[in-house]
Write a structure and sequence with these properties.
mainly alpha
Length: 121
Amino acid sequence: MQILTLVSLFLAIAALILTGLRLRTFAGRLREAESQIHSLTENLNALCSGAVGVDQRVSDLERSGRDLAHRQESMESSQPDRPYGEAIQLVQRGASASDLVKELGLSRSEADLVVMLHGSK
């Protein structure tokens, strides 16, 4: 009977040792998982912080684009209509850049451009 008790005690001790080793292995894996979770949490926090900055920049760019479009519209509406169609017809009939400046009030550079594009080759 003593042998049976000793064998049972030995088996119980062996089972405890194996359980302890498995527990140590699982504890190591748990530490690794916790470390990965911590790292992922830091990365997620950094991404969220960056996203807030990007969102603000996009909002600023959209506002700037709307402002520029509004300014362009107001500038276009405040400028007098330029008689480019008439200028083209005059150039095709032989008018010079000086004629366009005098007759239609175009700037010299506008008149030169119309003559260059639509004058006789």
